[in-house]
């Protein structure tokens, strides 16, 4: 069954094996690749499924891979694994069509939940009601909360946002917490996804 196939692309062999073991244990069917070019070579014959890829790889980055897949019209939903410093890249990746990103270290359940959500994409649910719900939530934010949110979506650090807005980093943290609370976002990727849903 192709619904259970998960393509794991990572140049780190230990990470590939660890993810494959986790997915196998969860009843999924992992296929592993040590590079993005290796996956692209197999793409035409590869079964449909969710792609889990690292963002930083030597031959081709995860972001370049997403752009290649989009150019080919490949339907595979992509989940990106990123290091802490890669949030701006991950935001760029989401704008390019990635469905989620997970910051290392992440727990097993976070990955499995992201894969389940990715599998449900395109199951026929209209996003319009969701878009209107998210728009209403974002419209309820104060002007300052919008400014902080814009900085967060651009991948800026709190101290950079603080400097640009002429407020303290602690104040940025308070506004950021308010934004998370008002939107109900459980993490950075969900918050960014909400913003991109309304303003692609």
Taking the alpha carbons of the first and last residues, their distance comes to: 32 Å
Name the helicity range: 55-70%
- CATH topological fold name of the largest domain: Rossmann fold
Total number of helices: 10
Strand and helix layout:
Elements: E1 5-9, H1 13-25, E2 29-33, H2 36-42, E3 50-54, H3 62-72, E4 78-82, H4 87-95, E5 100-103, H5 108-120, H6 128-139, H7 143-153, H8 158-165, H9 169-183, H10 188-198
Helix pairs in contact: 6-10, 7-8, 7-9, 8-9
Question: Describe it for me?
Answer:
- By secondary structure, the chain is α/β, with parallel strands linked by helices.
- It has helices at residues 13-25, 36-42, 62-72, 87-95, 108-120, 128-139, 143-153, 158-165, 169-183, 188-198, and strands spanning 5-9, 29-33, 50-54, 78-82, 100-103.
- It has 2 domains: 2-120, Rossmann fold (3-Layer(aba) Sandwich); 128-198, Arc Repressor Mutant, subunit A (Orthogonal Bundle).
- The chain has a 5-stranded parallel β-sheet with strand order 2-1-3-4-5, with helices on both faces.
Attribute tags:
single chain, 200 residues, alpha/beta, Rossmann fold, Arc Repressor Mutant, subunit A, 55% helix, 12% strand
